[in-house]
Amino acid sequence: MCTPCFFIDLTGRLTEFVSVITEKVVTLHPFFTNREIIHTFMIDYLNSGTMRARVRKLIISLCLFAAVCVSALPGSAQRVAVKTNLLEWATITPNLGVEARLSRRLTLDVSMTANAIPLKIHDYRLNNVLFQPALRYWFNRPMARHFVSLDFVGGMYNLQLDTRRYKGDVIGGGIGYGYALVLNRHWNVEFEAAVGIARLHGFDWRTSNKMPSVPNMSKWALVPIRLGVNFAYVFK
To answer: Alpha-carbon distance 111 to 153, whole Å?
Structure first.
């Protein structure tokens, strides 16, 4: 099978797999049918307790996330990298990613970001929990030089912009481009950007008013799916 055909086929299978799993989870567990319950659980879990407890919860969550990703990798994966996005850290957003080689040209990158400490700048405030998988096609070899990607994002957000509040969940996808600068045998610096469309669902209200009792916002928007300067350690 030619490389473009294999890429399209793998993308289709991955999308189908995610859709089936999501449908099964929602069907089997009524908890997931209420977005507000999920959002409250995730955000409040990370932001509850003392500052030390928040950081501890987040570190444990990110470590468990990385452990699950690594354990789920196929046995044939010959190269694995663990990374973190420096731009996310600039906004006090801890994050962790795992990337694994699937073939001579393809890798699967899975990242997670979450706020243990809400970012506050004047009238700007942000809490989020995001899950970001991406399928990358490398023009040279995996984890070196130029690549294009098929990116997805899903998660919850709690955002305040001046006198407006936005709270809900987001799911979307898009395409991206990046470059991995190889520093030495184990260390890389990656530059990447991806744009696409996302569905925003949740609540939109003014801070002077009470939060609506039912979701009042549901729309599709053109958004940046991913923007990163990643520092990666490659296991060989």
So the answer is: 10
Model confidence over 103-142: pLDDT tens digits?
Answer: 899 999 999 888 866 777 777 888 888 889 999 999 999 9
Long-range pairs for 70-76 at CB < 8 Å and ≥24 separation?
Answer: 70/98, 73/98, 73/100, 74/100, 74/102
pTM, two decimals, is: 0.70
What's the DSSP call for residue 74?
-
Beta bridge partners of 224: 195
CA 11 to chain centre: 17
Chain position carrying tokens 């958004």: 223
Question: Alpha-carbon distance 6 to 20, whole Å?
Answer: 21
Between CA 195 and CA 197 the distance in angstroms is 7
